[in-house]
Amino acid sequence: MMSGEFLFLVLLAVHAVSACKGASTLLRQLLPGSTPMVEVKINGVPRQLLLDSGSADTYLFTDEVTCLDGNVSVPSTVCQLGDLYGGAITPLDGLIFRQVYGGPGSLTEVSGVYAYATVEVAGVVLDKQIVAFANRTDTGQIHTGASGILGLAPRRDEAIYSTENPPRNSSNAYNVSLDYPTVFESMDARQLVEPFFSIAMENAVRGGYLTFGGLPEISFNRTFATAPLASPIDESRQYQIGVDSLNLVGNVSNNTFTAIVDTGTTVCFLPEQLATAINRAFDPPGEYDNQTGQFETSCTAAQPKVEATIGGVRFPFTQSMLVPKNFSDLSQGCTSMYAPQQPGGVIILGSSFLNNVVAVFDVGKEEMRFARHDYAALV
């Protein structure tokens, strides 16, 4: 029989190993270049939710959802949602959910109610976790094939409002919103995981890995670059960091800027002059589409060599930055994932950048860390 002290040390060692490995789960993508999805169980019901480090609320669509095309109700299939939730819901009195996703010129509004639920993701179970149940959305295509969103941004980005003081307009009035612990914050507060999570996207149908409180158990370059968050986590709505530079390889111009790291945005929104220069370097050159606000070119175009420098470490964009406009007919051309920053918009390093790295969102240390995938060799 082991002594009490020895047993304590054994349990402590087991806990340390568990904390190092964390709680991990697979990501998947419906199509190359699409936002990754993760399985989340809500009250025991498994659903595929979009993984979004750029928003905080976790929600899923109910089987009573109204799909709107403008102000006209249309069949829910038009909104291209995934499996809907049909379980019982007891809404929290006096609270409403209303959020707008997307950017200038392409917005999707989602609204509904809040309720307590049992949430399970990556094997971590949270009882009495507040989540939103969406019963109204429009035909924007951000949810294609998904049943909702797993929000991993800081809670200041939440869209929970009192029915006595609702948002004033569709752009959201963040100054009147309330807040609550997000799914990840609850994991941390209940000491179920260490205060960070990591994402290893792999630009494939499998999608990669999401790990809470640890690193993914895959092969990757273990040299990490560190970038502090631009503002304290309790004052932040996004994970925003400083980028030393982002350039065409061989171009020594100093493009220093701050950027949001967002798994829920597929493209990289860059300063207009930089995005234009990169897209003109495709062969054949990319042509700007005024309707979409992005560049387009042939799906067989030769792609320029581009790299970002963060925390003094170089990160090449080695994965394809072209996404077909129609996967069944490549002759229609491809859209470039290097997009110019829109008026009133922000600079974003989206999932097309994250496909090249293992990214650590360290809330405890208020920093982000990045390491290159093995396949993302320097050029």
From TrEMBL:
Alphabetized UniProt keyword annotations: Aspartyl protease, Disulfide bond, Hydrolase, Protease, Signal
Q: Which GO terms describe its biological process?
A: proteolysis
Q: List the disulfide bonds.
A: 299-334
InterPro entries tied to this protein: Aspartic_peptidase_A1, Aspartic_peptidase_AS, Pepsin-like_dom, PEPTIDASE_A1, Peptidase_aspartic_dom_sf
Gene3D superfamilies noted in UniProt? Acid Proteases (2.40.70.10)
Position of the signal peptide? 1-19
**What organism is the protein native to?**
Zasmidium cellare ATCC 36951
Any one Gene Ontology MF annotation carried by this entry is: aspartic-type endopeptidase activity
| Domain of life (superkingdom) | Eukaryota
Name of the molecule in the record:
Peptidase A1 domain-containing protein
Show where the Peptidase A1 domain sits.
34-371
Provide GO CC annotations from the record: fungal-type vacuole
Regarding protein family, the annotation reads: Belongs to the peptidase A1 family.
Q: Which Pfam families match?
A: Asp (PF00026)
Please indicate if the UniProt record lists Disulfide bond as a keyword.
yes
Coiled-coil segments, which residues? none
